[in-house]
Amino acid sequence: MYKPSQYKKEDPEYVLQFIKAHPFATFVLQSERLLATHIPVLTKGSADDFFLFGHVAVHNPQRECLKDEMEVLLIFQGPDAYISSSWYRKPDISTWDYSAVHINARLKIQREEELRESLKELVAHFESKQTKPVYYEDIPKEILESHLPKITGFWLYPSRVDAIAKLSQNKSAEDVASVVAHLKQKTCPAQSELIYQIQKEND
Fold this sequence. Notes:
alpha+beta
């Protein structure tokens, strides 16, 4: 990851909370060519000592590549937006504001019981936010048993963590206010989170 000093994030707590807020990751590995899949990934542990877990379908081409101790890359991305220089007081270079976390990790394939437990955690995590949640235990057993052989779960142990939040930190307070005002005119729901992040970075 390219991360100029004014944008890089090194606080472990920031990284952990970012992943929790944006758990839908791009899972990248090297085969005969680079392969990527978009999967939900959750964390276990503290900011200073955490690992992650996820799964892919057995019919996914990545499955043939999975082996213990191999290196993979996880990309977690926050909201982003084009920032026009027309929003600044003076003409400048247009840019893009965004935030992301990259994690290089060692992979370990889960045993069947580990997969079951991690799926329970995954379902509970996302279903707990629903009005009428359907937890792992609520899914008919025959459906679960037919589904489990179709997926492969894994643990992911970080070996390198890189984080960036490029959010107009190099601009004047007046230009930041203008950026926020123009983003508020957008209709995309993700813009509201980006606006919050920009304001937080520049308070």
